[in-house]
Design goal:
Number of strands: 6
CATH topology of the largest domain: MetI-like fold
Order of helices and strands: HHHHEHEEEEHEHHHHHHHHHH
CATH superfamily of the largest domain: MetI-like
Strand content: 5-15%
Oligomer: single chain
Number of helices: 16
């Protein structure tokens, strides 16, 4: 059995990689990418404001802004290479800086007011670039279609004594006008009114940094503008809070109630409780939440209507915070647990009734074992086995929450975050939430197998 679970654990990374790569590839071809959204917003802003743009599909965004979006969201790479970059197995370019080599007739020397001296001696072969992040001036010289050197501009030294930027980890490359035009054609899918003459060769400076999922970096959300991992961490406490409370209430009430209903089968207690739990099961949680919100939040203002805390929550005392949190929790929690009550209760009742009618229970009672002992020491353990198969999935349920209930009560949980990632669409946020959800689902299935093996000694995984 140990070998079986060890194999299952070793397959977890491969399974997560397969799921995430599939979704990553799908999000690359689906409409509504972050770049398309920015282009549409820019075009709409241009038409409303009457301003001009750069033409073509780029709307009001410049070529440099479009390229920056592509680099940030990995649309400048093939899908496999982009996925490896997101995963953290391939470096990405950071602190990107670039400048064009202009013909001698257009070459502009830098004025003394800007940098204190004239660094450019040959405008046709040299260009001045301000480094991203530091603003430090760098002179780049080309020779024969490639970068000959890139050095920090220092007015106190001769050019031959300037320090090479490579010592600080900077890298550089030379892009011809033809290469830039080919990239433009790929981006615009061949539909362009530009020619290669619209482009000039340029020097690009950057630093390579491997940063991805394996390094704890899930990228930046295009909708919220924040790191994906920070967004997930901020929603996790809310998801865990409701998930744990829902689990405790569901199992703490449904299991004893199912036992009582099995023992008191066809009594008034059994019939009345069945009516109540099936009525609750027939009402969707979000619908119940909306009704509670209207009648107990608006019509009769007993409970707060939205949110998880009051606006002055931070200024309250410790007891006041606990009371305020509990008061905001009542209505959403009722909506969370109502749907699972009937399923769990009736499963417990039916399983226990089947086992109470089994020969081994009747044999135990006939040998002098008390009825309570026969129920809890024999029948209950076997009755709990089918329920134990779903215990592992509680991990996913605890974290994922309920989108509709969170929407009704305006609770910023993990389920609502996943919904906004999909409707965005926000590729990096989709990948981040999917990675967490798929990993928890796989671990939950393994945990279910472990629980079943511990409860039922007859189960032997090979």
């Amino acid at each position: 059995m140990k070998v079986y679970f060890l194999r299952r654990l070793l397959l977890v990374p491969l399974t997560v990689l397969g799921v995430t790569f599939l979704v990553f590839a799908i999000t690359r071809v689906m409409p509504g990418s972050p770049l398309e959204r920015e282009l549409q917003a820019a075009a709409a802003g241009t038409s409303e404001g009457g301003g001009g743009g750069s033409g073509g599909k780029s709307g009001a965004l410049s070529e440099e802004q479009v390229e920056a979006f592509e680099r940030e969201y990995l649309y400048d790479k093939p899908v496999v290479l982009a996925y490896m970059t997101w995963l953290g197995l391939y470096p990405r370019e950071r602190l990107y800086s670039e400048a064009e080599f202009k013909p001698a007739t257009q070459g502009d020397q830098v004025s003394e007011e800007t940098v204190g001296t004239n660094f450019i001696q040959d405008p046709d072969k040299q260009v001045l670039i301000s480094l991203a992040g530091t603003g430090r001036p760098v002179v780049v010289q080309k020779e024969g279609g490639k970068i000959e050197w890139a050095r920090y501009a220092d007015s106190s030294k001769a050019m031959s004594e300037w320090e090479d930027i490579a010592k600080d980890g900077w890298q550089y490359r030379y892009e011809t006008a033809a290469e830039r035009f080919e990239t433009h054609l790929e981006r615009e899918k061949g539909e362009t009114n530009r020619t290669v003459e619209n482009y000039l060769p340029r020097a690009v400076l950057f630093k390579s940094r491997t940063s991805g999922l394996l390094q704890g970096d899930m990228g930046k959300s295009s909708v919220f503008g924040e790191p994906v991992w920070d967004l997930i961490k901020s929603r996790m406490p809310v998801a865990l809070y409701f998930g744990i409370l829902t689990t405790i209430l569901t199992y703490g009430i449904c299991l004893p109630l199912g036992i009582v209903k099995a023992i008191k089968h066809r009594t008034m207690l059994d019939n009345l409780s069945s009516v109540l739990i099936f009525v609750g099961y027939a009402v969707p949680g979000f619908a119940l939440g909306a009704l509670l919100l209207v009648y107990l939040g608006a019509t009769i203002p007993i409970f707060p209507m939205v949110g998880l805390t009051s606006q002055d929550f931070e200024s309250m005392s410790t007891f006041g915070k606990i009371k305020d949190l509990a008061w905001h929790t009542v209505l959403p929690l009722l909506s969370y647990v109502v749907g699972s009550f009937a399923f769990m209760t009736m499963m417990m009742k039916n399983n226990l009734m089947d086992n109470l009618a089994a020969d081994y229970v009747r044999t135990a009672v006939s040998k002098g074992v008390s009825f309570n002992r026969a129920v809890f020491r024999h029948a209950f353990r076997n009755s709990f086995i089918p329920i134990a198969t779903s215990l592992g999935s509680l991990i996913t349920m605890i974290v994922s929450g309920s989108l509709l209930i969170e929407t009704v009560f305006d609770i910023q949980g993990f389920g609502l975050l996943q919904f906004r990632a999909i409707t965005g669409p926000d590729q990096m946020l989709i990948m981040g939430t999917l990675t967490i959800a798929s990993f928890l689902m796989i671990m939950g299935n393994i945990l279910s197998d472990i629980i079943v093996a511990l409860i039922d000694p007859r189960v032997k995984f090979q």
